[in-house]
TrEMBL record:
It holds the Pfam family Peptidase_S78. The keyword Hydrolase applies. InterPro entries: Peptidase_S78_dom, Prohead_protease. NCBIfam families: proheadase_HK97. One of its GO terms (biological process) is proteolysis. It comes from Sedimentitalea todarodis. The keyword Acetylation does not apply. Keywords: Hydrolase, Protease, Viral release from host cell. This is HK97 family phage prohead protease. One of its GO terms (molecular function) is peptidase activity. Residues 23-158 form the Prohead serine protease domain.
C-alpha cells in the first residue's frame, strides 16, 4: 500500500529549452508560467520563489531524479531559478552512475524528451477559465522523464542549437499570448 505524501508531479517537454552539452551538462526550463498543462493546471510566476529560497537557506538542493524514482538520482542541479518565463534549471548528469550515462545517451538519441517537477502545492486558486492556478509550490525534485504533461516544449539533444529565428518566433508567440490575455482583462 502506497502512503499519500501529497507529492504531485508536473511534466514539461522542452527541446527549445533543454540541451545536453559536453560533460553531460543539461539546462532548460522545467516549468513554464501561464501555460495550461494536460492536467488543467497553470503555474503562476513566483510560485517557486519561497521554496527555492528555503532550500538555499538550509543548504539543500532540488534533487535530479530518473522518472521520479527517489532511489535513482542521476545528477545534480547546480542552478535552479525563476525568471519571467518559468523555472530554469542547469545541472550535470553524473556519468559515474549507470542511469546518468543512460540518460545522457537517451536525450542525445531523442528517446527522452521531457522534464517533470515533483512538488507539493502549498497555495492554489482558480483562473477565470476554471483551471487550478498554482501560486505557491514546495519544489522537491526535477526528473528526466519519458512522457511530459506540457506538450508545448521539446527536449533538444546535444548539438541541437537554437536558431535566432526559432527564438524570435517563440518570443513573439509568448508576447502575443500575453497581449491577448491582458486585452481580455
Amino acid at each position: 500500500m502506497e502512503m499519500d505524501t501529497g507529492l504531485e508531479h508536473k511534466f514539461a517537454r522542452f527541446g527549445d529549452g533543454l540541451s545536453v552539452t559536453e560533460g553531460a551538462v543539461i539546462e532548460g526550463y522545467a516549468s513554464l508560467f501561464g501555460q495550461v498543462d494536460q492536467g488543467g493546471d497553470v503555474v503562476q510566476e513566483g510560485a517557486y520563489a519561497a521554496s527555492i529560497r528555503a532550500l538555499k537557506q538550509c543548504g539543500q538542493r532540488v534533487k535530479m531524479l530518473w522518472q521520479h524514482d527517489p532511489a535513482q538520482p542521476i545528477g545534480v542541479w547546480d542552478e535552479v531559478r525563476e525568471d519571467a518565463r518559468g523555472l530554469w534549471v542547469r545541472g550535470r548528469l553524473l556519468d559515474s552512475t549507470q542511469k546518468g550515462r543512460e540518460a545522457a545517451a537517451l536525450i542525445e538519441a531523442g528517446a527522452i524528451d521531457g522534464l517533470s517537477i515533483g512538488y507539493r502545492t502549498t497555495k492554489a486558486g482558480k483562473t477565470d477559465k476554471g483551471q487550478r492556478l498554482l501560486t505557491e509550490l514546495e519544489l522537491w525534485e526535477v526528473s528526466l522523464v519519458t512522457f511530459p504533461m506540457l506538450p508545448s516544449a521539446r527536449v533538444a539533444a546535444k548539438g541541437d542549437m537554437l536558431t535566432t529565428e526559432t527564438v524570435l518566433r517563440e518570443l513573439a508567440a509568448t508576447l502575443e499570448s500575453a497581449r491577448l490575455e491582458l486585452a481580455r482583462r
